[in-house]
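Bench log, entry 3. Co-assembly request; chain sequences pasted below exactly as received.
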Amino acid sequence: MQIYADNAATTRMPGAVIDVMKECMENIYGNPSSLHSPGQRAAEVLAQARESVALMIGAEPKEIFFTSGGSESDNQAIRSAALAGKRKGKTHLISTAFEHHAVLHTLRKLEGEGFEVTLLPVYENGIVRAEDVRNALREDTALVSVMTANNEIGTIQPVKEIGAACREAGVVFHTDAVQAAGHIGLDVKEMNIDMLSLSAHKFGGPKGTGALYVRKGVPLLPLIEGGAQERGRRAGTENIPGIAGMAKAFSLSMERLEENRAYVSGLRDALIEKLSEIPHARVNGDRERRLPGNVNFCFEGVEGESLLLLLDADGIAASSGSACTSGSLDPSHVLLALGLPHEVAHGSLRLTLSAENTMEEVEYMAAKIKHAVRYLREISPVWEELEKGERKHVI
Amino acid sequence: MGISMENNGQTKALIAMSGGVDSSVAAALMQAEGYDCVGAMMKLYQGEDTAGTEKRKSAQMAHKPGEGEQDVRTDEAVRGAGICCSAEAAADQAESRTCCSTDDAEDAASVARKLGMPFYVFRFTEEFRCQVMERFVNSYLSGETPNPCIDCNRYMKFEKLYERARLLGCEKIVTGHYARISRDGAGGRWQMRKAVDQTKDQSYVLYQLTQEQLAHVCLPLGELTKERVRGLAQEYGFFNARKKDSQDICFVPDGHYEKFIEKYTGRRAPEGNFVTQDGEVLGRHKGIIHYTVGQRRGLGIAAAHPYYVKEIRPESNEVVLCVHEALFQRTLTARDVNWVSIAQPDQKIRVQAKIRYRHSPQGATAEMTEGGLLKVTFDEPQRAITRGQSVVLYDGDLVLGGGKICGEEQKTAEICRDPRNSEN
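Structure output for the full assembly:
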């Protein structure tokens, strides 16, 4: 059996999305900036995609800027808001301790350039409190950036309330909605969002395509210079197949949003329930306010990497931490932000389900995970110490 | 559990890869011998853990198992003696003088891909911090000059990495070390010999391997010369075959151990007195971690004859200086003793002993004390016998065993039991 349970890392593209992209590659080869008919056809496809993406989040087409993906969108949103703030003497930035590295690293760079950064706590349930944001806001705050849903533990943040606090104070509010889009409903107006990052491949679109929503009236400065594309905010010939594929994937997932949400969260809850039977295991992040497909567990005495190896041999594709950080060295900064001790933050398993998974797969995974955890504990010196009482259980 | 040890009748082997010539060739050789191979690399530390990180903030470091391990030795002192790096980095690239960069991981992955092997990168930062860095720092603080490569081989490559190998169903773990492993008759003791290429021999850094470990370790380069290995690398088309050996300790790429230690502990080493063996104060020193037994340069003492570091006394924070002749000693004691090719002898044996990586073996007799220490008496006095370094005993090519030099009294550095307690 081959089971893909790493949909927060990336998703498989539906056939309908591939068809749209293939059509673009074969027939819409013009440059949308060109005057001639092939160019105009490409411009038409681009305009349609922009409209479609805007519609999905309750925005105006003019408020959508296509980029190369979530990381670029985050970088541009934060740099732009920071720079615009600086011009008015505002050099304070607010974010949270468990943002994606595209946000955290950009903030760290800005810190080196003279900005002051406040990172808010996320508490044990992995949810930021709007009142903390309100209390952190200052006269010189240029930007607040809080993700819509966390990539590792899937917790959904009170974006609407945070947005309201920012709106009241006249501070730009950006949210990285890369993990949320296509999985939960988003409405930038209702949620008081000024800037929002999207990535196509997290909801069935192609890699290398994303978008940044920027509310009309909020200034946006380009990261990439060199052309008038995206109204001068993002130079470079538009990736028409990618953009068209993104629009198609987004509308497909929005069409099925409620249906998928009910189905996938049913799988998620069943999997969480089964894995909770394992002793000294814990779910990371709030049980209720989390993305439909996200299951994130820590098993005491078990290293995440070892577990992944065994699961891979059983045909299960999962991840430890987030895919972006499992190539790096830290124990999950997200789990550390929840206040978990180091040894536990090392042992996390993330399974992210989609509508393509089945209950049968959930049962298979649960059985294999239980088996693997038991085996790894048998050979773990740490577990032996725990069992002998030489070391205290933390879970 | 889970993964089968055999794949279509082939035994599975995990190759500790670095992207360098040696481990790449080792991988190809194992494949040619019919093993079903898996490549792996260890990520052992991150930028913040090392000194001089500013230059290469973004570098993700991973360790390159088992290559080019050697010491960095100045003319005068054994400062850093035996401190080795198991890596081949582009030594001419001053800016990326580390063996453990993203480039290395990419090189290793590319070699694995070329050979059609799966490739994994394992994150062992916590274990490395506890088992290697912590020991390294504590050793310096207690007046020793450690050789972290020995600990890294012992605890990381042949223990931690082997655990992962087992999970992947691998019976063998393979490194690019230059040394030979064989068996004393069927069912007999596992033995280790020097590499055929004596100039590349790395048996010194492998003496801590146990019988159990030797049973599943393969060192395919032990029978080959470095020249031959380079030739094979060309034949296999490994583009990195031109890489030079690096000579530094991997997590202190700039060679400033004292800075690393001060950063790691968050404390400046306190200044103290230089004294003679009779206790006469000769001047002030910058902190004991700045000195190594045998060192002459950088003492800042004006005298008619040159002074050398004779001994470091952490308790009184003194550095004892002496004249050159007084550096020579005939006996040493070692703890943490491991017997490799022979069982622990119950009487005196004749050996050739090496007291650091680049030392040529010297005639000596060795015996175990009742306290479980190893006592070595050299035929001729040896210069600058240094605590923290290892003494390794040979009988010709055969590695008999060895231990960590501890002088006369046994000094055990405080080692964290749990990697997680090692946060500084």
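Confidence is low (pLDDT under 50) at residues 48-99, 409-424 of chain B. The helical segments of chain B are 21-32, 102-114, 125-141, 148-167, 211-214, 226-236, 257-265.
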